Amino acid sequence: MSRTIRFGVSLNDRLLKDFDRLISGRNYKNRSQAIADLIRDSLIERDWQFKNKRVAAIIGLVYDHHRRDLVNKIIDIQHDFQKLVISTQHIHLDHKNCLEIIAAKGQAQAIVGLAHKLRAVKGIKHASFTTTTSGKKLI
Ligand code: NI
């Protein structure tokens, strides 16, 4: 069971001013909440960079759906990586463009491989890759 521990932090006044400005734009209730979030971000980033941990990710692809070869290629890749892909959502942005949102979960290196493969499909207009934690062990 975890408990909350209070500790003091010493900061340069200008750094603290900048920090307060940063967190006021993000609607944090207090500094403690903002600092806890920054610590979590750092821990998650470490998991991605240095350990092949089990993580979750969101891959977003924008493309022209008239390019049937491209659509088939994206579907083929998702089937090749079906153990990682846990959900997909297809959104018709307009008459021409589609947005595919792919949620994935698995070992970090395998997910990066999936993202690179999808991003490399010829004709993709934009690809975004957001990483997060699988939630385990994170408080
Ligand atoms: Ni569509």
Walk me through what this model shows.
- The chain has 139 residues and is α+β, with helices and mostly antiparallel strands.
- It folds into two domains: 35 residues; 80 residues, Alpha-Beta Plaits.
- Helices cover 41% and strands 29% of the residues.
- The protein is built from four helices and four strands.
- The protein has a four-stranded antiparallel sheet with strand order 2-3-1-4.
- Strand 2 and strand 3 form a beta hairpin.
- The longest helix has 20 residues.
- The termini are close together.
- The mean pLDDT is 90.
- Bound molecules: nickel (II) ion.
- Nickel (II) ion binds next to strand 2.
Q: Are there runs of 5+ residues with pLDDT below 50, and where?
A: none
Radius of gyration over C-alpha positions, nearest whole angstrom: 19 Å
Determine the N-to-C terminus distance: 10 Å
Mean pLDDT: 90
Count of helical regions? 4
Helix-strand topology string: HHEHEEHE
Biggest β-sheet description:
4 strands, antiparallel
How many individual β-strands?
A: 4
User: What proportion of the residues is helical, as a percent range?
Assistant: 40-55%
Major sheet: arrangement of strands: 2-3-1-4
Based on CA inertia axes, which overall geometry fits? elongated
Which structural class should the secondary elements be placed in? alpha+beta
Q: Give the cofactors and ligands.
A: nickel (II) ion
Q: Architecture of the largest domain in CATH?
A: 2-Layer Sandwich
CATH superfamily of the largest domain: ACT-like. Chain A, domain 2
Beta fraction: 25-35%
State the name of the first-level CATH class of the largest domain. Answer: Alpha Beta
Look up the CATH topology of the largest domain: Alpha-Beta Plaits
